[in-house]
Amino acid sequence: MKIEFASISQINDIVIHVRFNSVSPSGEQFESYLEELRGLLNKSKEVYLIYDTTYSLYIPREFINTKINWLKTNSKLLSLHVKKAIHVIPNAIQRSIYQNMHSVYQPPIPYAFTSTLGSAYKMVESIESANLAKL
Q1: Considering only CA atoms, which of 108, 120, 93 is closest in space to residue 11?
Q2: The model's pTM
Q3: Helix (H, G, I), strand (E, B), or coil: what is residue 48?
Q4: Beta-bridge mates of residue 16
């Protein structure tokens, strides 16, 4: 099934970029997106997940609940394969909604919010540089 509302790309060995588009997903498409993401994570080592909502619509409430359930069900997979999830959310209201969602359900992995894709990649670089300095 073609997933029009999101594209998932492995940018390099340590970054998976999920770009949400301005298409509203059906329930089946949202489930397919989560399955595709799970499959890619199963094949990955430790990665950063960058969720880019720069061009997206608001995600309907029922999909937020679906995502929370997916996080709970896949907590071990996420803990093994994801160093950090970075949410790129330019819209301050939408960012606030996601921050509240994360306060209600604490994801099993570290996460951060930022307003630009560039700052998300700078976070990755900063964390990786700090890790190299520890060696």
Answers
A1: 120
A2: 0.89
A3: strand
A4: 10, 49
